[in-house]
Amino acid sequence: MEKYVFTDSVGFLTTTISRILQQKLQARFKNTRLNTTPEQWRLLVLISNEGEMNQSQLAELQHKNRAAIKRLIDHLENKKLVTRNSGKDSRSYTISLTQEGKHVVQVFNKASHETVKEALSCFSEAEAKDLNKLLNKLLNNIN
User: Fold this and answer.
1) What PROSITE patterns would the database entry show (predicted)?
2) Residue 1 lies in a domain
3) H or E stretch covering 82
């Protein structure tokens, strides 16, 4: 039986890469002085890309529970980055970006692009595309 090398495992590598990228992204975001976390930005960019949606849809797309998404929405609403809009049913509402939320997305998208570009600079363009394709294949397999 082959020796198990934990530091070569997919879980260790993806977790470590994710943590380091998160730290680099957080540092870039902090330099903008916009006081938004990468986790909050991910929700903002999702709404920006997909359009307004409800809490359940956001939870599903983020692979998070509704309570966690509600807390994020509450923070973003307090920062005046999103608004809750009443839906057809008084118990439901959709979340949309404010103008300030759209501005944050634009600034943070640039910071994110720079972070990813720096991280992928060790790959050729073809290798970076292959890596993305393989990671999506893995995600689809485990999801």
Assistant:
1) HTH_MARR_2
2) no
3) strand 82-86
The structural domain count of the chain equals: 1
The structure tokens listed for 95 are 């979340």
pLDDT of 90 reads 54
Beta bridge partners of 97: 82
pLDDT of residue 88: 66
Domain that holds residue 119: 6-142
pLDDT (tens digit per residue) in 18-58: 999 989 998 998 888 888 888 898 899 999 999 999 888 99
**HSE of 18 in the Cβ direction (CA atoms, 13 Å)?**
8
Q: What is the pLDDT of residue 32?
A: 87
Backbone angles phi, psi at 127, to 5 degrees: -65, -40
Yes or no: say if 58 and 46 are a contact pair by the CB < 8 Å rule: yes
Q: Which of 54, 40, 118, 124 is nearest to 84 (CA)?
A: 54
CATH code, domain carrying 41 = 1.10.10.10
The one-letter amino acid at 137: K
Contact in structure between 74 and 81 (CB atoms under 8 Å): no
Cβ–Cβ < 8 Å for 88, 43: no
Question: Global pTM?
Answer: 0.77
